[in-house]
Fold this sequence. Notes:
Layout (H helix, E strand, L loop, with lengths): L2 H15 L4 E5 L6 E6 L2 E11 L2 E7 L9
Antiparallel strand pairs: 1-2, 2-3, 3-4
Pfam families: DUF3126
InterPro entries: DUF3126
Protein name: DUF3126 family protein
Amino acid sequence: MKPDEIRKVEAYLRKSFKAADLEIRPLARKSDSAEVYLNKEFVGLLAKDTDEDELSYHFTMTILDIDLE
């Protein structure tokens, strides 16, 4: 993902989750994915998707059962 894309999506997620310390870090070997961190802790993946000339971003967060205890 390009730096300008990351900045835009990062600003959107920060506003949506009211989380100023949310950070998106690009992956070195993937141009369509990035990692999402909150308080410097990995929380999920962000994927860029272009389908039928429409651009979207998918945020995936896995919640383990041990995290719920």
